Amino acid sequence: MVKNAFSSEAQPAHPAERIDDHAPQLTYSILRGRNKIGENLIEISYGKTRILVELGKALDGGEELSEREREVLAKSYDAVVVSHYHADHAGLIEQKRDCPIYIGEGARRILGAMDDYRGKALPQNIVSYKDGKPFCVGEITVTAFLCDHSAFDSYMLLFEAGGKRILYTGDFRLHGRKNGEKLLARLPQCVDTLIAEGTNIGSGKPCFSERELENRAAELIKSTKKPIFVLQSASNIDRLVSFYRAAKRCGRIFYEDVYTALLAQAAGGKIPRPDVFRDVYVFPARPVRGRRKEMLFAFEQKCGSAKIAKGAPFVMLLRPSVLGYLKKFAEETDLSGALLIYSMWKGDRERDDVKQFLTETHALGLKEYTLHTSGHASEEDLARLKAHVGAAECVTVHTAAPAPCARPKRALP
Ligand SMILES: [Zn+2]
Ligand SMILES: [Zn+2]
CB of 122 within 8 A of CB of 115? Predict the structure, then answer.
């Protein structure tokens, strides 16, 4: 039986199970993130091996580190293992240099592209794990399972030692483009402890699929001949795919700003990006200099608004920080009646930059329409996962219940 003082749903040890008090036990401790969406910090130990799972940042605390964050950064670990690149899970990883930090290879490439755009280099102690390939940290074996989430290359993490198993879900959903059934089939069916995210617990939120979102987007695009703009997170690669596919179905070209194009390029594979896809173009949101100019040259033949000037219908992805570009665009083109699709979490509307973006785009005459589905599991899918892995003990983290709070996001340039 895995022991933990924090567990609200701990089950008693099976009567037949005999515990050797002197043998090391695989244990966990939720350092932060129990009653809050995000900011995860979890410790997993066995004997002398100690792993920190996630190194999330409390972004509502500003740039200052909290006492808990300083404590964790100063503490000695054999490794940090991170499920995905969202700031509430990985926001502090670049401040921890005294041990290896493991993250998925695709997620590492995305973090590298983000740093490159900011003129920084990713620290060398950030290394990668591979889907389904176990690796050892001291006496603990770790296996990562690729799952679906609103961040590219996200994983569930399995920790095994001394005959016990702890499965941590990270952030996940079963209604994304990846096949949820296949993921369930790969997971062990007898874990001792399940540490599961609970973002949508109590929300009663309908979680329609990413494919359904693509269909609804295509219907919207078909309904007008006006320009279409989409406000979404640049690092939500699956959402980018949905809007690209919808645009393609409607014969529209697709525009990404330089930063989004760089993240799509880092994701690689079949992700729509201007250097590979004929119908994907890039726009410089602001004058670029130095290294960023070099980055833009990588997309040389696909840059600018010449196609738009020729009247080619388009769908353009936007971020709040490209508002200046949109306002300039509106000086040359009448945008009244153009569509702005809001495709982010509703809580992001409270961010100052999003508020300003929406106010000013409304003033330009854009008509707003919300089209979004959650990057997190529905309550029903959480129940399916719990039943499938047969956990003796279930612990919920990353949940707003009982005290609702905002989900922090990595600050974008
Ligand atoms: Zn999260
Ligand atoms: Zn996340």
Answer: yes
Tokens of 125: 């102690």
Same domain, 337 and 380: no
Beta-carbon neighbour count of residue 121 at 10 Å? 9
pLDDT of the residue at 409: 36
Say if residue 224 is in the same domain as residue 354.
Answer: yes
Centre of ligand 2 from the C-alpha of residue 171, in Å: 5
Pair 136, 32 in one domain: yes
Residue 321 CA, ligand 2 centroid: distance in Å: 21
| Predicted pLDDT of residue 306 | 64
CA of 172 to the centre of ligand 1 (A): 9
The CA 152 to ligand 2 mean position distance, Å, reads: 9
* Mean pLDDT confidence for 246-274: 95
CA 248 to centroid of ligand 2, rounded, Å: 28
Q: Which bound ligand lies closest to the C-alpha atom of 39?
A: 1
Whether residues 215 and 272 fall in one domain: yes
- Closest ligand to the CA of 86: 2
Distance (angstroms) between ligand 1 centre and the Cα of 144 equals 17
Pick the ligand that lies closest to the CA of residue 408.
Answer: 1
Could you tell me the distance, in angstroms and rounded to a whole number, from the CA of residue 162 to the centre of ligand 2?
Answer: 30
pLDDT tens column, 70-100: 999 999 999 999 999 999 999 999 999 999 9
pTM: 0.89
Q: For residue 83, what are the contacts with CB-CB under 8 A and spacing of at least 6?
A: 53, 54, 89, 103, 144, 154, 155, 156, 157, 168, 170, 171
Question: Residues 112-126: pLDDT tens digits?
Answer: 999 999 999 999 999
For residue 397, which ligand has an atom nearest its CA? 1
Closest ligand by atom to 84 CA: 2
Whether 41 and 33 have beta carbons less than 8 Å apart is answered as: yes
Indicate whether 385 belongs to any domain: yes
Rounded-to-integer distance, Cα 3 and Cα 193, Å: 9
Ligand 1 geometric centre to CA of 71 (Å) = 21
* 133 shares a domain with 105: yes
CB-based contacts of 59, cutoff 8 Å, min separation 6: 87, 88, 91, 408, 409, 410, 411
Confidence of residue 184 (pLDDT cuts 50, 70, 90): very high
Please give the pLDDT value at position 309: 64
